[in-house]
Design goal:
about 350 residues, binds zinc ion, about 25% strand
């Protein structure tokens, strides 16, 4: 089969002819139809310090995937509808594989499993014709779901998990960072009934995506500040909830400066290095800051599926995040597009 792999330590990837994987006990084999590119894949391709510390090549990369279930491994329970998993069904996959035996897993908190491994990082991934994942990671999709949409459930889950961390219905939300996850969070905040949504970035291309996703204002913080837009919207106190999606120290500072007393800040953007924070306003305004990583298994998956099911507008706004599509053989063009910054979600077609 075709597989995009890191064959040895160092920069680069290779599209190789690899043996097809066979499902181990408790695993399901998926024929990949679409796969989404993530920032993680760019780190792996360029072989930065993080990638060098995490990967043990040879490894097939990629974790945002959608396809058709083609084989069920041994010891996968035969559940009744609507929970059955059968050959021929379409599915996405949760990219975090949990251990099931640590204290957190056994206490019903698998999203904070201390032994989490990742598809396409610690085990073979979905940039290939076939991938095997534990049956518990399979998310069966309706037959009529757009395959492109199916391939971005993993990052959409990040957006949903972050956006729903604090109650936002009727509240004012500020989102820093308009990469695909920030833009999807904008659409989710709008869908669940936030009053005003203001998004920030330093890329006009990405700010335009946030506007299309429903932001009231999309502010280029390389040129402007957020505070005047608060006044224009008639906000008296500041934002009730902040979603930090950029990893930028300056973005977190502007978020804290623009939040009202008692606000909540959910942080998904991973900073590239440690940085100082002015804790004075965090303490005196009694802010709550919470780190977010991945999705709540599987509460987030139900919520995103159900929200998409009933809202054509939300489906359209999430789909608008996809700006580039390439065939698997054009993977180098796909990676170049994802690196350019002039992009939203980049999809590879493996069908
Ligand atoms: Zn665990």
């Amino acid at each position: 089969m075709r597989a995009l792999a890191k064959t040895s330590p160092g920069p680069g990837l290779e599209l190789i002819d690899a043996p097809e994987p066979h499902p181990q006990p408790h695993e399901v084999k998926i024929r990949v139809l679409r796969a989404g590119l993530c920032g993680t894949d760019l780190h792996i391709e360029s072989w930065d310090d993080w990638a060098a510390s995490m990967l043990k090549p040879p490894l097939v990369v990629g974790h945002e995937l959608y396809g058709e279930i083609v084989e069920i491994g041994a010891n996968v329970p035969r559940a009744a509808a609507p929970y059955e998993i059968k050959e021929g069904m379409r599915a996405s996959a949760e990219g975090h594989v949990i251990c099931g035996v640590c204290r957190n897993c056994r206490s019903g908190r698998p999203h904070v499993c201390v032994n989490t491994s990742s598809v396409g990082v610690n085990r073979d991934g979905g940039f290939a014709d076939y991938v095997c994942v534990p049956y518990t990671n399979v998310w069966v999709q309706p037959d009529d779901l757009d395959p492109d949409l199916g391939s971005i459930f993993d990052p959409l889950g990040n957006a949903v998990h972050t956006a729903l961390t604090f109650p936002i219905a009727g509240d004012d939300v500020m989102i820093t960072g308009c990469g695909p996850i920030g833009v999807m969070a904008t659409a989710i905040a709008r869908h669940v009934g936030a009053r005003f949504v203001v998004a920030t970035d330093v890329s006009d291309f990405r700010l335009e995506m946030a506007r299309r996703a429903g932001a009231d204002h999309a502010v280029n913080v390389a040129r402007e500040r957020v505070a005047p837009y608060q006044r224009e919207l008639g906000m008296l106190l500041g934002f009730d909830v902040g979603l930090e999606m950029s990893g930028s120290p300056a973005a977190l500072k502007e978020l804290i400066d623009n939040c009202q007393h008692g606000a909540g800040i959910a942080m998904l953007g991973l900073p590239s290095e440690p940085f100082a924070v002015d804790w004075g306003p965090v303490i005196t305004r009694m802010l709550t800051i919470k780190g977010i990583y991945g999705r709540q298994m599987y509460d987030t998956w139900y919520r995103m599926s159900f929200m998409l099911q009933t809202s054509a507008e939300l489906r359209e706004r999430i789909r608008s995040v996809i700006t580039h599509r390439y065939r698997a053989e054009q993977w180098q063009d796909a990676f170049a597009a994802a690196r350019s910054g002039e992009c939203g979600k980049v999809i590879m077609d493996w069908s």
